[in-house]
Amino acid sequence: MANTYRFEQAIKKLYKAFHNDRLHPECCKQCAVGNILDNKDAWKHLSNDHGSLQLNYLGIVHQNLGRKFNGYTPLELLQIEATFLKACGFKLPLHHKHKKPKYPTDKSVLFTGLSVVVELLCELDGIDNVMNCSALFDFEKSQQEILT
């Protein structure tokens, strides 16, 4: 199945952010959603807490009007961000007293978060997980091909 335009754009932006050290989980402009939305932070007004899955009044209005931001609904954006933060090791919603990784911008922490986000983006668009490399190492299938 072909990738969607919104998926392609999101992946390009996240890839660039990761490799240009412009990905920061605690910054609304440089987090996963901030990067998907061109480093704008207006999306943070869709919810009362960073990392929450609960839309506030403004978020509900945008959701009910069918508004999309770079192809994603307000609920999808909150889901993407919560998934990213949780995979990076944050307790949600973000709060200075809650658990967080010691080095939130460490490349391994960010890669873990992005891997889970890419999986979610694939799921949202109904495409195969592009991060899944298990087919490359399908030992049983390879053994059957050798025997036949």
Outline:
The chain is an all-alpha fold and 148 residues long. The chain has helices at residues 5-19, 32-36, 57-64, 74-87, 107-125, 139-147. It has one domain.
Topology:
Blueprint: H1 5-19, H2 32-36, H3 57-64, H4 74-87, H5 107-125, H6 139-147
Helix pairs in contact: 1-5, 4-5
Description:
The chain is mostly helical and 148 residues long. The chain has one domain. Helix content is 47%, strand content 0%. It is globular, with a radius of gyration of 17 Å.
What attributes characterize this protein structure?
148 residues
Helical content, roughly? 40-55%
Count the domains. 1
Q: Which word captures the global form?
A: globular
* Total helical segments: 6
The succession of helices and strands, N to C, reads HHHHHH
Strand-residue proportion: under 5%
Poorly predicted runs of 5 or more residues: none
Radius of gyration: 17 Å
Number of E-state strands? 0
Q: How would a textbook summarize the main sheet?
A: none
Q: Mean pLDDT across all residues, rounded?
A: 91
Structural class: mainly alpha
| Distance between the first and last residues' Cα | 29 Å
